[in-house]
Amino acid sequence: MREMSGMLTCAHKARGLVVGLLAGLVLGGAAVAADPDDGAADGVEQWPVVNSAVRPDPELEARIDALIDRMSVEEKVGQTLQGEIQHVTPEDVRTYHLGSVLNGGGSMPDRNKHATPADWLALADAYYAASMDEEDGGVGIPIMWGTDAVHGHSNVVGATLFPHNVGLGAARDPLLIRRIGAATAREVRATGIDWTFAPTLAVARDVRWGRTYESYGEVPALVRAYGDDMVTGLQGEAGMPDFLGDSRVIATAKHFIADGGTAKGDDQGDTRLGEAALRAIHGAGYISALQAGVQTVMASFSSWNGDKLHGHRYLLTDVLKKRMGFDGFVVGDWNGHGQVPGCTAESCAAALNAGVDMFMAPDSWKSLFHNTVAQVKAGDIPMARLNDAVRRILRVKMRAGLWEKGLPSTRPHAADGSLLGHPDHRALAREAVRKSLVLLKNRGGVLPIDPGLDILVAGNGADDFSRQSGGWTVTWQGTDTTREDFPGGTTILEGLREAVAEASTGGRVRHARDGRFDEAPDVAVVVFGEPPYAEFQGDVETLEFQPGDKRALAVLKRLKAADVPVVSVFLSGRPMWVNPELNASDAFVAAWLPGSEGAGVADVLVADDAGRPRHDFTGKLSFSWPGTPLQAPLNHDAEGYDPLFAYGYGLSYEDGAAGPDTLPVDVPGVRQGRPNDLVLYHGRASGALSVFLESEGQSGMKSGPVFSLPGKSMTISVEDKDVQEDAVRLDWRADTRGRMKISGPARDIARFREGALRFFLKVNEGAVDGVSVGVGGNWLSLAPMQSEMAASDGWRRVSVPMACFGSGADLGTVSDVFTIRGRGPLSLSLARVEISLGQDRAVQGGKGLTLDCS
Questions:
Q1: What is the pLDDT of residues 525-580, one digit of tens each?
Q2: R_g (Cα) of the chain, nearest Å
Q3: SS3 state at 441
Q4: C-alpha distances in angstroms, 600 versus 440, 455, 593, 772?
Q5: Cα–Cα distance between 504 and 379 in angstroms, integer?
Q6: How far apart are CA 808 and CA 811, in angstroms?
Q7: 5-58 pLDDT tens trace
Q8: Which residue has the higher pLDDT, 46 or 708?
C-alpha cells in the first residue's frame, strides 16, 4: 500500500485564490452580492470562458474520426444509451451497442446486497466482453459503468462511508476533500467500475430540499473551492501520469444547473431567478470542476424559470459546451429526459438536440433505442448532433484508456478486497468525522466528557448505522439495512465504548435507547436525528424537528428532570429548528451524517485520562441555522438575515465559549398538536412502518426494489409515477390470492375517523371488482369503481371516507394501517398512500374518484 500512503500524505499544491476564499468563509464571509442580478447583463458572453487542465489531443481526435466513420446509426445511438444493470444483460450490450450501464441506489449484481468484489467484477467483465465483440463487422467500443459513489463506494457492503457533503462543508478543508476523492476512487476500482456520479456541486439555498446533505454549503465560493479538489481526487491531476489511471475513476459534476435553488426546496422543482444570479450562485462549482478537467456533467431534473434542464439547449450547449468549453459529455439523470415537454421516457429527440449526449434510461432504454434510431433516420435528430454526442462519449472513453485497460478483472486493484474499508481509508473517514462536527452549545463545561464517569448513552441514533449514514447507503434511501451491512464500521455507541475502554480511569458506558435507568449516571449522551432519506423523499415543509411528535425531546426532558447533565448529538442532513432540544441539553453537537466511522464522534466528545480534549471542535456551519421552523430560505447574503446561528458559527474547547442558554420556543411555525396527514407510503413506508406481502400462508417483508413471495405467487417492484421510484407495482399470478400491507407498531388512528384514506391507483392488468382495501381489520371492496378504473386508463386518485371502515372502537389502535388484497391474474400500481383529515385538492379538482359506501 505504499502508493496509497504516499497519496494520503502528498503535499497539496497552493492555490492562492481558493485559500483566500476559504479564509473569508471560515469567518462567514461571502463572494456573492445580495442581489447578483442588480445591473448585471444576460447572455452567453457573460459566462466565463473556462480553461480546462485537460488539453486537446489531435491524435486522439483522429482516432475518434476513424471510429465514427465505421459506425452505423444503430451503433451510434447505442453509445448514447445507459441502462440499469437489473434491466440490461451482456447480450443486450452486444446487440444494442450500449455505451454505458449504471447501478442505481441499492442495485447490486444478482440483487445480492452482500455481493463480493469478485461478483461485481464478474458482471463488469461480462458487460465489457460483450461491448468489445466485433462479430458481424461491428465496432468494438468498451462500455462504461457508472455508480453513485457519493460518500464513498456506498452501494457496496464493507466500503468506507465518509461523511455526507453537508458535513464535509463544515470541515472547511479542501485537502481533506481531495484525499477522500482518491480513497473513494480506489474502492470503486476494486469492483471494476469506471465512473462515479460525483461530486454534487449544488449550492443549496433552501434546506427544506431533500438533497441538502449532498451540498457542501449555501455559499458559492465554498462549493467552488471544493469542486476542484473532489474532481482531482477522483480523476487525478490532469497532465500527470495517473490522470484517469488505474487508481482513478471518471468524475461527474452534477446536477447542471441550480438544482439547489428550487422554489421552496422542491426536489426536481423550478429555480426562479435571473441569469446573473444563476451564473454567480449556481455556476460557481462548475467553474472549478471544469478547470480541473471533469469529464462528465449530469443534467438536472429541475427547471430554470419553467424550462426543464434536460431540454435546455441554451444552458447545455451554448453556455456549458460552447462558452465554458466543456468537451466531455452530458449525461441525463434517471429518465429525466421523459420530463421534457412533448417527451416520454421512451422517446425524446428534444433532449438529445438540446445537448444531452447520453440518456440515463434505466428501464426505458430499449424503446428509446428504436425511437431514437427512427428519429435520426427521419431527420428529427440531425446526424451532426448525433455524431457530436458520440464523439464526446468516445473522447472520454479514450482519455480513460478503456481499450488499453482491458477486462476489469485484469486491471490493477481488481478484486482486491482489502481496498474496501482499508484501514487507511477508515482512518481518513474518522478524521473527516472529527473535522465535520460543529459545537453549538457547551454550558457548564460538560464537554469533553471525563472517561472515568458513568456514561449513559441513549437515543435512536446511538447504535444505528442507517441513521448515522443517511441516504445513498447500501440502499437508495439508506433503509432496510442491518448491522451486518457495515462490517468494520463503528456506531457512535461503539465509539464511545471504545474511547472509555482505552482510558485507565475506570469509567463505564451504559446503553438505554429510551434514556431510562435504575441508577442515575454522571452524564448522558443522547444521539438522535432525522431518519434516512434520499431525493424527493427528504423534502419537508417545515424545519421543525419531529413536529407534533417530540419523542427525542421527551428523552432529553426525562434526563434533565433527574438532574443528569445531557450531551445531545444531532444527526441530520440539514440544519433544523431544535430550540426545545437545545434548551433541554447542556451541550449540543451538530454531527450531520458521519457515515461508517462513528468513533470519530467519540474522539472529540471524550477527554483523555487527564481530562484534556483529545481533539478539539473545528467545524463551522456551512449552512445558516434557523431561528424558527418557517425560516427558509435563510442565506447569509440576503436582506433581513437573522439566523439563530450564523453561517460560520462553531464553538471550540479552545475558545471556551458556551453558546446560548434558553432559547425561545413560542415562535411562528411551531405545530401545535399532531399533523393532519398520516403518510403511510411515498416511495417507501414511512417512519416505523414496513411493507409486507402475504399470499396463501406465505409472507415476507419488502427488503429491496423487487420482492416476491416463494414461487413468485405475488411480486412487488418499484415504479416511477412522478419521480424516481415513488410508486410500487403489485403483480398477482393467476389463481393466486395475495395482499400487500403496510404495518408497524400499534398506533391509535381514532382521530382520523372524520378523514379519508387516499391513494393513487393504476390498473395495469385485470379488474378491480375483486380488489379490497382495508384499515385495521375492516375491509371495503373497490368493485363499485370498476366502470371508472379500467386497465390502461392511467393513474386515478382514490379517496375513501374513513367512516367506511367503521367508527369508534373500529378505528382505534391498529397495526395493519393499510392493506390491499386481490386475486390474479392482476397487476396494480400504487402510489402515495395516506390518511388525512384535510381536503384533497386532487379530488376537488375532479381528478380523483371518491368511493361512496353509504
A1: 999 999 999 999 899 999 999 987 899 999 999 999 999 999 999 999 999 999 99
A2: 27
A3: strand
A4: 18, 18, 12, 51
A5: 78
A6: 6
A7: 333 333 333 333 333 334 344 333 334 444 555 556 789 999 999 999 999 999
A8: 46
Residue that has been written with the C-alpha cell 424527493 in this structure: 536
Pairing state between β 756-765 and 772-775: unpaired
Residues involved in catalysis: 333, 535
Mention every residue, 6+ apart, whose C-beta is less than 8 A from residue 473: 151, 154, 161, 465, 466, 481, 532, 595
Sheet holding 307-308, edge to edge: 270-271, 303-304, 307-308
Upstream peptide bond of 255 is cis (omega within 30 degrees of 0)? yes
What is the rounded CA–CA span in Å between residue 767 and residue 790? 7
> Is residue 257 reached through a cis peptide bond, with omega within 30 degrees of 0 on the bond before it?
yes
Please classify residue 672 by burial: count the beta carbons closer than 10 Å to its beta carbon, then call 0-12 exposed, 13-18 middle and 19+ buried. exposed
Angle at 93 between CA 88 and CA 96, to 5 degrees: 105
Question: Cβ of 642: how many Cβ atoms within 10 Å?
Answer: 11
**C-alpha grid cell, residue 619:** 467545524
Residues shown for the chain: 854
User: Which stretch of DSSP H or E encloses residue 731?
Assistant: strand 727-732
Please give the torsion angle defined by the CA atoms of residues 572, 573, 579 and 580, in that order, rounded to the nearest 10 degrees.
Answer: -40
* Crossing angle of helices 284-291 and 220-235, rounded to 10°: 30
Task: Report the C-alpha gap between 571 and 566 in whole angstroms.
Answer: 16
Question: Cell 474518522 appears where?
Answer: 430
- 16 Cβ neighbours under 8 A, 6+ residues apart: none
C-alpha span between 436 and 167 (Å, rounded): 5
Find, among 472, 60, 70, 106, the residue nearest to 244 by Cα.
60
DSSP 739: E
User: Residue 711: which region, alpha, beta or left (left: phi > 0; alpha: psi -120 to 50)?
Assistant: left
φ, ψ of residue 748 to 5 degrees: the values are -90, 120
Nearest Cα neighbor of 333 from 349, 311, 315 is 311
The three-state DSSP-derived secondary structure of 148-190 is CCCCCCCCCCCCCCCCCHHHHHHHCCHHHHHHHHHHHHHHHHC
In angstroms, rounded to a whole number, what is the distance separating the alpha carbons of residues 389 and 398? 14
Q: How far is CA 288 from the centre of its chain?
A: 23
What sign has the CA pseudo-torsion 652, 546, 673, 667?
A: positive
